[in-house]
Design a protein that fits this description.
Length: 201
């Protein structure tokens, strides 16, 4: 399986899923129709893309989408979601994270954006177990190192204040402010004090 095959499966999943929240279920269904080795290869491509998206600017842009700073786990699940949005959305986000302002963001009943897709990754594991009766972690080539893979970027979240966010991502910043009735509270959410992050995680 090459990377285009990977993105084809993601695209098919997105076409068949009725709503974004069902994409993980549909991914599991489509993967469970494949041979075990192809599921393993899909998993390798997936985690390679997750690592490539581990950059400071993707993190900063994601904070604006989530309306707050993200924890390590939240950032991980955010990158799962970004991959689930498809090849074009993913690749444009890596080139220009502000392009994520143009994505269709689904919100829950309380108005919070659904941009964390932990279950999307688990769908791969479930599909493999459904097909083989075994866990994917035990597959011989499940975690092969791709020598051409880009290593995650080392960045400091403290570089992403309301000033830098507004300058780096004007479209996302405008959308963020438009969703916040209290401008002062919006600024404070992305202010960093000597005691650490202001606002709630």
């Amino acid at each position: 399986m090459n990377e285009q095959d990977f993105w084809h499966i993601v695209a098919v999943t997105n076409r068949t899923a009725r709503y974004q929240r069902f994409r993980a279920e549909d991914l599991e269904y489509h993967l469970s129709k494949l041979a075990p080795q192809l599921i393993v290869e899909f998993n390798l491509h997936f985690h390679k893309l997750v690592n490539q998206a581990e950059t400071g600017d993707v993190y900063g842009a994601g904070c604006l989408l989530s309306q707050d700073y993200m924890s390590d786990d939240s950032f991980l699940y955010f990158r799962y979601w970004l991959i689930s949005m498809g090849q074009t959305a993913y690749e444009q986000a890596l080139i220009n994270p502000d392009s994520m302002a143009m994505l269709e963001i689904v919100h829950d009943r309380d108005g919070y954006p659904r941009i964390f897709a932990e279950s999307y990754c688990y769908a791969i594991y479930k599909a493999y177990e459904k097909v083989t009766g075994k866990q994917i972690f035990d597959a011989p080539s499940a975690w092969e190192v791709d020598k051409n893979s880009v290593k995650p970027e080392d960045f400091n979240w403290q570089d992403y204040t309301h000033v830098s966010l507004s300058e780096k991502f004007p479209l996302l910043w405008a959308n963020y402010l438009a969703s916040e009735p209290d401008r002062e509270a919006a600024y404070k959410r992305f202010s960093i004090s000597s005691e650490g992050i202001s606002g709630e995680w």
